[in-house]
Specification:
By secondary structure, this protein is α+β, with helices and mostly antiparallel strands. The chain has a domain at about 30-70 and about 105-185: NADH Oxidase (3-Layer(aba) Sandwich), CATH 3.40.109.10. The chain has 6 helices and 5 strands; from the N terminus they run H-E-H-E-H-H-E-H-E-H-E. Bound molecules: flavin mononucleotide (FMN). Flavin mononucleotide (FMN) binds near residues 28, 29, 151, 155 and 177. Pfam families: Nitroreductase (PF00881).
Length: about 200
Amino acid sequence: MKDKPVLGDPLPATHPDENFLSMLQQRRSTTAAMMTGPGPDSDQLTTILDIASRVPDHRRVVPYRFVIFEGGARQNAGDILSAAYGKQNPGAEKAAMELEAARFLRAPVVVAVVARTDPGHKTPEWEQVLCCGAACHNMLLAASASGFAAQWLTEWYAYDREVLAAFGLSEEERIAGFIYIGTAKEDPLERPRVEASDITTHWQR
Ligand SMILES: Cc1cc2nc3c(=O)[nH]c(=O)nc-3n(C[C@H](O)[C@H](O)[C@H](O)COP(=O)(O)O)c2cc1C
C-alpha cells in the first residue's frame, strides 16, 4: 500500500484499476446480524478512518468526527441503549432489553460518524451533510478493501438525544451513521437494484 500523502506531494489524477471497478460494481453491505470477528486491528482501523476522512469537503469545513466503540466499551454502550429503551418502553420484555444491550456486540468495531455541521458557515449546511455521507461511504469502501464486512446503520438510537448525550454528542451534533465493521459469517446475496438508466436523462434544449 502507498504511504499516506503529506502536504504538497504530487498525486496521480486517476487510478485506473479493473479490480477497483469490479469491487465497486459488486459492492454490498453485510448486515450487522451476519457479522463476527475479527475486526480491523489498530493500524487497519487508522487506515480506514484516514480514508473515510479523505472526502470532498467544500471550504474544508470538516463537518464530521469519528467515535470508536470497541472491546468492553461496546457492552457499556449497549447498556445505555437498553436503559433508554426500557425507560421509553415500560414493561418491555426481557428479550427486547437484551437485544438492545447486545446491539454494539454484533460487530467487533463500530464507528459513529458524528455530523458537526456549522449552519452559520459560508458553505451551505446541506453540502456539509452530503460531505458527512461521503465520509460514511468512504469508510464502507475502505473497510471492504481492507478485507472487512461493513454496514451503515442508524437505527432508533441515532435519533435519541439521551443516548447521544451519553455517547458524548453535543445538542447540535447528529449521527450520520454507525458503521459496523467486522467479518461476514457468510457472503451476502445481491439485492434488487435500480438500473441507473431508469433514473438517468439527458438534458437538452
Ligand atoms: C443513512 C443510512 C442509514 C441506514 N440505516 C439503516 C438502518 O438503520 N437499518 C438498516 O437495516 N439499514 C440501514 N441502512 C441501509 C444499509 O446500510 C444498506 O445500505 C442496505 O442494507 C442495503 O445494502 P447495500 O448497501 O448492499 O445496498 C442505512 C443506509 C443509510 C445510507
